[in-house]
């Protein structure tokens, strides 16, 4: 539910100040909030992120890319289409990641129920697009 609200906020903000500035403002506020939470609630003996494999830090690149796409597409295709499209992409990619055990996750075979769930999501995308 929060992502739909964020999309609704980002679309008009992006039109008003530009997509990249809107993305920067969202991440700036998020970074400040995260810093405060870390300052007061994070264990002091946690390992440095410099010791982690670099591929695990790709989320730092994927997050802003996601927000920029959200900011650009929402005013064009609407919040419902944007959210269903994102959901379809997330579920299809997660099925691949689960099936092959990518990114250090345990393997979970793709079965009929999971494929059926993806088909329903794609059907929702088609139905909302036709509305």
Provide mean pLDDT, rounded. 90
Number of helices: 5
Report the sheet-strand fraction: under 5%
How many runs of DSSP E, i.e. beta strands? 0
Tell me, briefly, the overall form. flat
Determine the structural class based on helices, strands and strand pairing: mainly alpha
What oligomeric state best describes the polypeptide chains here? single chain
Residues in helices, as a percent range: over 70%
Q: What's the N-to-C terminus distance?
A: 21 Å
Largest sheet, described in full? Answer: none
* Poorly predicted runs: none
Order of helices and strands: HHHHH
Rg over alpha carbons: 18 Å
Structure in words:
The chain has 5 helices and no strands. It is mainly alpha-helical. The longest helix is centred in the N-terminal third of the chain and has 23 residues, at 19-41.
Spell out the blueprint of helices and strands.
Layout: H1 2-17, H2 19-41, H3 59-77, H4 79-100, H5 112-130
Helix pairs in contact: 1-2, 1-3, 1-4, 2-3, 3-4, 4-5
InterPro entries: YdcZ
GO cellular component, one term: plasma membrane
Pfam family, one: DMT_YdcZ
In short:
The chain starts with a helix and ends with a helix. The protein contains five helices and no strands. Helix content is 76%, strand content 0%.
Structure keywords:
membrane, transmembrane, transmembrane helix, single chain, mainly alpha, Transporter family-2 protein, 76% helix, 131 residues
């Amino acid at each position: 539910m929060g992502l739909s609200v964020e999309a609704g906020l980002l679309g008009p903000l992006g039109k008003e100040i530009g997509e990249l500035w809107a993305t920067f403002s969202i991440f700036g506020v998020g970074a400040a909030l995260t810093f405060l939470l870390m300052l007061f609630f994070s264990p002091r003996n946690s390992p440095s992120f410099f010791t982690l494999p670099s591929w695990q830090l790709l989320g730092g690149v994927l997050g802003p890319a996601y927000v920029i796409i959200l900011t650009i597409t929402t005013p064009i295709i609407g919040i419902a289409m944007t959210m269903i499209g994102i959901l379809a992409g997330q579920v299809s990619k997660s099925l691949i990641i689960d099936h092959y055990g990518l990114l250090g996750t345990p393997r979970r075979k793709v079965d009929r129920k999971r494929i059926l769930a993806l088909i329903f999501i794609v059907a929702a995308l088609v139905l909302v697009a036709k509305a």
